[in-house]
Amino acid sequence: MAAPLFMSGVFNYVDPLFGWQLYIWGWIFIIVLSVVSWLAWRYGKWDKYKPVWGLFYAFKAVSQAAFIFNLGLICELLSERDAKCIFDYGKWKYTGVSRLRSLIFNYTTVFIPEMPLAKAIIFKYGGRNMDVEIAKRLQNYEWEKYSSVTLGGIHTDMILDGDNWTIRDSPQHKIIESQCETHNDGNPTDQIHSYSKYMRYIIERKLPKPDGIVDFITIPWSRIDAAFPILIGNNTMEGAKRQYARELEELDNNTLGQFYFPILGGGLGMAALLLICRMVIVFLL
Description:
Layout lengths: L21 H23 L8 H8 L4 E5 L5 E5 H5 L4 H5 L14 H4 L5 H10 L4 H8 L8 E5 L2 E7 L10 H16 L8 H9 L17 H7 L5 H25 L2 H25 L1
Parallel strand pairs: 1-4
Antiparallel strand pairs: 1-2, 3-4
């Protein structure tokens, strides 16, 4: 005796328009709903928190964060990995890995072999980056920490990057990466994996300063005073105004955000209803 069909096989019926079974339409509906929901969350919710993404990634990686200042003393909040690590270790160890193996392969296990495979897979798909721990190991845990503030429980450094070292596509970064890679190949017990150690070795003349790299920058006091004024009364008022304006903006965005999913669900429901009605009419006629 054959097993009874789920709901008497109602989802196996073929629609008269396209000749597809109803369960295929169900899968299409689920996929469309998932994609649209992700887009609504990504661009409607997550993007507005971009200024603190670095703090979130630092929290996930159980590392620190850093304020990176440029010559204009304009800062950006980055994770410790983006602020201090010279190398992208995944770029090394994914070379030559087949597409099928890359689904479960995590390059972290090459540098941290004692990490269990199950944990590595969780970290891989959970987006937890271990580059800071890898860099510390390769540098024999010679790692500078000068935490200046604490944000949301995360220790945060304040770093001046006056020569675009931390910008991955900059010519300066590529010069540093190439020089450190050559140095590490010849000095396996004294490797350089952080910008601060590289700077120290340049200052101490343990490494030659290559053309295109600036190791000393003078910032005028007037610029420092403009960014961090001693008289902060006016700044306090301006900060309060900005905070109030931001709260009003977020209130509007959150109010609008309450309608995302009802509108989405109503639109998809209406489309499904129209499709069903059309199929029923065609079927009956």
